[in-house]
Automatic annotation (TrEMBL):
Binds 2 lipoyl cofactors covalently. Its EC number is 2.3.1.12. This is Acetyltransferase component of pyruvate dehydrogenase complex. Residues 263-300 form the Peripheral subunit-binding (PSBD) domain. Keywords: Acyltransferase, Lipoyl, Pyruvate, Transferase. Its cofactor is (R)-lipoate. Residues 2-77, 132-207 form the Lipoyl-binding domain. It catalyses: N(6)-[(R)-dihydrolipoyl]-L-lysyl-[protein] + acetyl-CoA = N(6)-[(R)-S(8)-acetyldihydrolipoyl]-L-lysyl-[protein] + CoA. The keyword Transferase applies.
């Protein structure tokens, strides 16, 4: 039976999406997990995957077309199936034909939907997605299926304005700030700190308490939160004494959270970047010390200095060491990021037939060149920057290594987008240096440093980590001589870079001290053969052993 796919709300402020590209056309076979389309939202271009097997019978608009949230995006069913009943009147009628379906949930049959509708009172059949007072959990990353509430910055009863920070939501890739896109009073929160909330489930209600039937909305959304604590959120918040509220507000940080993340509105961050202002030195005047536009407008270096000195002075007491012989351990919940890392890399490890190629590279001339380059370079160039540049040039000469495995076809990429693995406290992020072959060493060095800082501050956005064609993982700075890395799908290869060590080498028949670096290329044998990978490494070796070739 044909299933309707509606335009999902992919960001907290999204009201419509633009089709940036279709990856399937009407008549094509579609499997679960296949990439259907790329949707441009108000914040990023995200990939939309199919959650059903079948044939693509209809698309709601062509490339470049706009669709409102919950408009008809596509229909998937059996080849030749009659879908006229789903097309009458466009997206809204199509949506009405499938009231229990959302783009982020697995599709249910019409029979189950009708039975569920009959079991519910008529008053609970509400279209929460189109209610102005309702805020649902947005999909804040391309692979997100649920979010964890890291912190609430408002409590029930507080007045909320547009742009106010409501909560911090931990996704599978980063912790992101959720801002309010309406004004009113916070009447209800659907999950407490630490609770998991599926995409499109009820997150909170904001509005006029005299006009909004909170109980009716909550009843309609019942079951959307995985934690049992959500149902108690409103009465518990209402029962908090005024004294506790005052203490909470007093304890709020001025402009920086305990994990080093600056609390500021997106507009304030943008203005600070444009004006060259270090936002860490700005004192916030918004709720909870949040930095807003007027703080940037009124900031002067003299006024901004020294105001963060009092932050983080109190250190939590350390637990006493365990008694000798006593069993002691700590169990830490798995973060969303770690779950996705485990899932994606397990899929890569157990589905891709990998093989490994290791080569030693003499880095004597690279060491000498880097010293001379840094004498005149506007930013300090690292060995990793030189490896990245050399890989970019080598990938242009060996396009098969720059290819992607897509199941029933291989995509040979003509552009070179290199992902750089960056370790963060919760796991690993891979921001992408785009068109690396066209950038200078200084540009690459600057971009990699900015990405590393954003990753550690949890400021990376989906557009920063999407679209790699090749990946580099470097553990040389930790003294690791040699290792193998797991491919980052859908890339076909990843390069593991070890440390540069001084070892005896033979030059002109004499044993001398040389600087040697080992690299290991992990290859997906479905795309890259041994000879192809070896030829790539030879080119990489030639470029790093004679760095002047990278300038030609």
């Amino acid at each position: 039976m044909a299933e309707v796919i509606l335009m999902p709300r992919l960001s907290d402020t999204m009201t419509e999406g633009v089709i940036a590209a279709w990856h399937k056309k009407v008549g094509d076979k579609v499997k679960k997990g296949d990439l259907l389309a790329e949707v441009e939202t108000d914040k990023a271009t995200m990939e939309l995957e199919s959650y059903k097997d079948g044939t693509l019978l209809h698309i709601g608009t062509e490339k470049g077309g706009k669709l409102q949230v919950n408009d008809l995006l596509a229909i998937i069913g059996n080849a030749g199936e009659d879908i006229s009943s789903l097309l009458g009147g466009g997206g809204q009628k199509a949506a009405a034909a499938a009231p229990e379906k959302t783009a982020a949930e697995p599709a249910k049959t019409e029979a189950k939907a009708e039975a569920k509708a009959e079991a519910k009172p008529a008053g609970e059949s509400l279209d929460l997605a189109n209610m102005q007072e309702v805020i649902l959990m947005p999909r804040l990353s391309d692979t997100m299926t649920e979010g964890v509430i890291a912190a609430w910055h408002k409590k029930v009863g507080d007045a909320v304005k547009k742009g106010d920070l409501l909560a911090d939501v931990e996704t599978d890739k980063a912790t992101m700030e959720l801002e309010s896109y309406k004004e009113g009073k916070l009447l209800y929160i659907g999950a407490q700190k630490g609770d998991k909330v599926p995409v499109n489930a009820l997150l909170c209600i904001i509005g006029d308490e005299k006009k909004v039937d909170v109980e009716k909305i909550v009843a309609a959304a019942k079951g959307g939160v995985t934690s049992g604590g959500a149902a108690k959120a409103q009465p518990e918040a209402a029962a908090q004494p005024t004294q506790a509220s005052a203490q909470t507000e007093t304890a709020a940080p001025a402009a920086n959270t305990g994990n080093g993340r600056v609390v500021a509105s997106p507009l304030a961050k943008k203005l600070a970047s444009e004006k060259g202002i270090d936002i860490n030195k700005v004192s916030g005047s918004g709720d909870g010390g949040r930095i807003i536009k007027r703080d940037i407008d009124n900031y002067t270096p003299a006024a901004g200095g020294g105001q963060q000195a009092a932050a983080a002075t109190a250190q939590p007491g350390k637990a006493a060491p365990a008694v000798a012989g006593q069993v002691s351990f700590e169990e830490v919940p798995v973060s969303q990021m770690r779950k996705v890392i485990a899932k994606r890399l397990s899929e890569s490890k157990f589905t891709a037939p990998e093989f490994y190629l290791t080569m030693e590279i003499n880095m004597d001339k690279a060491v000498e060149s880097r010293t001379r380059i840094n004498e005149v370079a506007p930013v300090k160039i690292s060995f990793n920057d030189m490896v990245l540049k050399a890989c970019a040039i080598a990938l242009k000469q060996h396009p098969k290594v720059n290819s992607s495995w897509l199941g029933d076809k291989i995509r040979v990429n003509h552009h070179v987008n290199i992902g750089v693995a960056v370790a963060v406290e919760e796991g690993l992020l891979v921001p992408v240096v785009r068109f690396a072959d066209l950038k200078s060493l200084s540009q690459i060095g600057t971009e990699v440093k900015e990405f590393a800082k954003k990753a550690k501050d949890k400021k990376l956005q989906p557009s920063d980590w999407e679209g790699s064609t090749f990946t580099i993982s470097n553990l040389g700075m930790f003294g690791i001589e040699e290792f193998t890395a797991i491919i980052n799908p859908p890339d076909s290869c990843i390069l593991a870079v070890g440390a540069i060590n001084q070892v005896p080498v033979v030059k002109n028949g004499q044993i001398v001290v040389g600087n040697v670096m080992k690299v290991t290329l992990t290859c997906d044998h479905r795309v890259v053969d041994g000879a192809t990978g070896a030829a790539f490494l030879q080119t990489l070796q030639n470029l790093l052993e004679e760095p002047l070739r990278m300038l030609v």
